[in-house]
Structure formats: C-alpha cells, structure tokens
Amino acid sequence: MTRDEGEPSHKVAPFQNGIQGLEAGLCATLDRPYGNAYSFLPGKIHHPGPDEALVRLDYSGVCHGDVYGRDGGGPAPAQPQRPLIGGHEGVGMIIALGGNMSKHLGFEPGQTVGVAWRSNVCGTCDACRAGAENHCSSQKIVGMHRPGTFQHQLVRIPHSLNGAATCPILCAGVTAFAAIRMLEPEAGKWCVVAGAAGGVGHLAIQYAKKVFGLRVLAIDGGNPGKEAFCKNEGADEYVDFVDAGEDLVHIVREKTQGGADYVLVLSPVQSAYNAAGEFTRFRAKVMAVGIGNCHMPLRPILRKDLTIRSHETGTKKDIEDALQYSASGLIRCRIEVLKLNDLNKALDRLKGGQVQGKLVLDLRS
Where do the Enoyl reductase (ER) domain residues begin and end (predicted)? Predict the structure, then answer.
C-alpha cells in the first residue's frame, strides 16, 4: 500500500510523461518475516519499462488479502517476498508510461486508473486461454508476490467515480459480482451470503439484490449493529450465527421457505462450509470464495445433487463491468477512510472481524 509512487511537486503538472521533479512518498513496507507489522519507509521512483506505467496513488483499499500478505496463510507464498509494498486496491493517476502502454493499449498520462489483485498472468495456460486469467496457474499477486503492476492489469476508471469509494470494487466488488454472475442465478430465488457485513459481503448483498434480482439472506454475527447494516444494503433477512447456534440450519431453511438456491461462502472457516451444504435446497449451487483450509462435506453434496463452484476475484472484464454498476449509482461501497499510518491497526481490525464495509487509506497526505 504505497502512499504514492511519486507525487508531483507544485512545479510539475501531474499529467506530464516524465518523472523529473517527482518526490517519492512513504511506502507501507513489509521488511520482516510473517507476523510482523508494516514499516513506513521512503519510497523510490523508477522509470517505467516499455510495458509499465508509473501511477501516483491517491487511495488504496484494505483487504483481508493484505492480512495474509503480512501474517501469512491463505494465498500467501510459503516464503514471504521481502521487502514488499502491500496493497492491491489502488486508484490513482498515470504519471509516466512505457512506450507499449500508449502505442498498443491506449493509456495516456493523466488518466485515472485502478491497480488490482494480480499484476501478471502467463497468457498461455488453460485458464488464460479460456478467458479466465483470474485462475492463471502462474499469476503474480500485487502486494504479495511483487509491489507493482504490469500494463494489462491497469483498469480505466470511469470519470464519474469517486476514488476512495472505487478502490474496493477492484477486489472486493469484483469478487462478489463475478462469483454471483458465475452462478447464472434466476431472479426471485434465494441467495444466502455467509459473511455478509464485510467488504465483499455488503457488496455481494447489493449485486445479488440490485443487479441479479435475488432475494438475499445475510449471515454474520458478533455485533448487534450488523443486522441493520446488512438490511440497509438490501438483505431481505438476517441471521446472527452466534445467536442461532445449533439452530442456524433450521432458521435459514425456515426463512428461505425450504432452503437456499444459491450460497456465497465468504467466511474462511470450516463451520461456514459445513452449514452451507445443510441449509441448501435440492440442486442448489454453492460458491466457495472464503480462502481457508476448509472442505465441503460430501454427504449433502451427494444427497441433494449440489453444484459446488469456486471463484477467485475476477477477470479484467469483470472489473470493468462491476465498475459500470458503480458509475451508474446502482452499487455503493460503504467505506471508512483512514490514514496510511493507521494501516497495521486496520489489518488487526479486519483480522478480528471488527469491520463493517470497507477500510480505505487516503494516501494523499
């Protein structure tokens, strides 16, 4: 999560294709083994290569993926990449471009762009050839494997969008949107969102309800304010899994008139996957999104002829489509804006399940 990779001085127009006069800001840098906090160190400005762009970042979302980058686990590599600048939900302005960026891809200095989850894909594996580069076996993840981005992962941001509220769409939003779209849902049916009050969850409620016309039951817990929050996002029903206890499956079946047609499992815990198989109806579809050392019990899959899918973030096309729903005003991300030096506390809050909506860092000051 860089504060900015070069911020123009008052003498340099922000849209000049050059880096003379730019001063590097502080960077939130991981320079110690997993489990240690970010350090805030002076950044360095590098001339972009032929297929690269230099972006002055204004905002960066804080994602649970960043917890893995700091503490390990989930998709993080077994051996941490250090030193490493974290973050993968960045929005900012192009300051300088390599030759291929303008010539072949149409990017220009001064454009507002987003820097998302993956920085590079191979383009040749089965997933890439199928147009599913989000499942590339050789992908490199921004803020986990490397601190930058290659040209094809820059995303143009519609002019009407606010930078701070746009950051989360680049990861949380596209993850929710693409996962639901992959289910090919029928309007009017029941979709259960497990882990509904967080960054991905509150956007999943909105996409399911407003874009796909589904009825939504939200599951979360641990805070009495989460019910009002989820219903404000559009949830028709809410179940607190803490209060429900062993009756969770029965309550969900009752509220959905027989069981869920679709389930998004966003919580990376085994109990969420156990319950998902039980409160579904016959031939329901379950989408595994929450990253954890979890499994789906086989018995309900066989008994109900369930379809189990998995999904990781989304393609560039998914991001562009998700952004258009935000640009139209249909989807609104609930954000809390923090300063860069609040980063470690923000990650601890995420890890403890103490966040409703999304946390965003303002990198401009």
Answer: 35-361
Spatial neighbors of 85 by CB under 8 A, at least 6 apart, are 1, 2, 27, 28, 29, 30, 43, 143, 147
Q: What is the pTM of this model?
A: 0.87
Helices (H), strands (E): how many in the chain? 13, 17
Q: Which two tokens stand for residue 266?
A: 């966003």
Q: What is the pLDDT of residue 292?
A: 81
Could you give the CA distance from residue 164 to residue 92 in angstroms, rounded to a whole number? 10
Which long-range contacts (C-beta less than 8 Å, at least 24 apart) are formed by 218-221?
Answer: 218/192, 218/193, 219/192, 219/193, 219/194, 219/195, 219/248, 219/252, 220/195, 220/196
pLDDT tens digits for range 121-155: 888 999 999 999 888 888 876 656 555 322 345 78
Tokens of 342: 């609040």
* CATH 3.40.50.2000 matches 173-310: no
Give Dmax (Cα) for the chain.
69
The hierarchical CATH code for the domain 26-170+314-362 is 3.90.180.10
Residues 6+ apart with CB under 8 A from 364: 4, 7, 58, 59
Summarised one tens digit per residue, pLDDT across range 176-211 is 999 999 999 999 999 999 999 999 999 999 999 999
- Per-residue confidence at 13, pLDDT binned at 50, 70, 90? very low
Domain boundaries, the chain: 26-170+314-362, 173-310
Q: Using CA atoms, how far apart are residues 340 and 346, in angstroms rounded to an integer? A: 10
